[in-house]
């Protein structure tokens, strides 16, 4: 096994299967699923930052009212 070399290749960004070098995905299904996963992550980030901002604003408002 020491002298065996695999052909130059990459791995699918979604499922990790080997793909020809320079390709990002093994098929359109993996590309679609990765796009959905990225959109979901982006939504989660927006919700987190929106919630954090709302909490900070609420705490500032409570502080102002109590003074």
Short description, anyone?
With 67 residues, the chain is mainly alpha-helical. Helix content is 58%, strand content 9%.
Average pLDDT level: 93
**Shape, per Cα inertia axes:** rod-shaped
How would you write the strand order of the largest sheet?
A: 1-2
Q: Assess the beta-strand content as a share of residues.
A: 5-15%
C-alpha-based Rg, rounded = 23 Å
The helix tally amounts to 1
Residue runs with pLDDT of under 50 for 5 or more positions: none
Number of beta strands: 2
Largest pleated sheet: 2 strands, antiparallel
What number of structural domains do the residues give?
A: 1
Helices and strands: which structural class?
mainly alpha
Q: Helix-strand pattern, N to C?
A: EEH
Distance between the termini: 76 Å
- Which percent bin holds the helix content? 55-70%
Topology:
Blueprint: E1 9-11, E2 18-20, H1 28-66
Antiparallel strand pairs: 1-2
Structural summary, described in words:
The termini are far apart. The model has no long low-confidence stretch (mean pLDDT 93). A hairpin with a 6-residue loop joins strand 1 and strand 2 (18-20). This protein has 1 helix and 2 strands, in the order ββα. The chain is mainly alpha-helical and 67 residues long.
List keywords for this structure.
67 residues, two-stranded antiparallel ribbon, mainly alpha, 9% strand
């Amino acid at each position: 096994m020491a002298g065996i070399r695999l052909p130059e290749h990459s791995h699918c960004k979604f499922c990790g299967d080997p793909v020809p070098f320079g390709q990002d995905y093994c098929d359109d299904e993996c590309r679609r699923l990765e796009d959905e996963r990225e959109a979901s992550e982006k939504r989660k980030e927006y919700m987190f930052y929106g919630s954090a901002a709302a909490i900070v604003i609420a705490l500032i408002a409570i502080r102002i009212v109590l003074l």
